[in-house]
Amino acid sequence: MGNESSDDAGIYQLTDEIALVQTVDYFTPIVDDPYLFGQIAAANALSDVYAMGGAPKTVLNIVGFPVKKLGSDTLTKILAGAQDKVLEAGAITAGGHSIDDAEPKFGLSVTGIVHPNQYWTNKGAVPGDVLVLTKPIGTGILTTGIKRQAVTKEQEFEVISAMCMLNKRASETLQNFQANAVTDVTGFGLLGHAFEMAKGSNVTLHMTYSSIPQLSGTEELAEAGVIPGGSKANHLWLKEAVSYDSALSEVQQLILCDAITSGGLLVSLPKDQAAKYIEELQENAARAWVIGEVTDKTDKPIVVSK
User: What pTM value is reported for the model?
Assistant: First the structure.
């Protein structure tokens, strides 16, 4: 699998038993604390391997940094945060590359492994499946709120905790079930990644707004105009692809299109397996929610009810 699809990572078969899963992701800081920024960037990059059903093995750091302006101590903290997440994932840091840059940028190139016959893609959702989401949405709105000093300490802690959480448990637990399609929810927002799943699977995804988990304060901040440009761009991009319930406000539509960093997995799996999957996640200190269902293809790839 290469760049001919809109999937989360590339896959290259080495043997009958082993295929490589490869991805790369990096971005500018979204929190002030350099250690936490390193953790979030690492969790975000590692997520693509988990979304393919793989296990991360090695990473390379990618760094753009104004060392004369911000000092080497700040960079050391970013790298330390990332390293802790890499170790939590069971992988190792094999090296990396840095350049002098006016604006800090950090991320990882990640290589994992998966069995050539057992990887997941974002296409393959089947009518009758249900949709399960493993993290709340709203990180783009909340992190914009942090920049504008518009969130509480509790809200800041919640969004940072969500972004730092690896999708390791969600992915490893899902290995015991029949996942027909999987993707992770990141920059294109929940509806953007759902659109790619629906398009690739030739189905329609029906979601219920009230069933979709949100971080505390998401709707209140959005109502106050705290919405990142990326979320607005997603909403415009998806204008013709989504049928929204007339009872949903434009703000609620924007929340569903919120540009997310280090979001959860969106999973399409048989209805009779969803409850057990969620139960096993809860037993391992993780959560998931049923947010919709898959039907035969209709006029729109995505339908959202109130």
Answer: 0.96
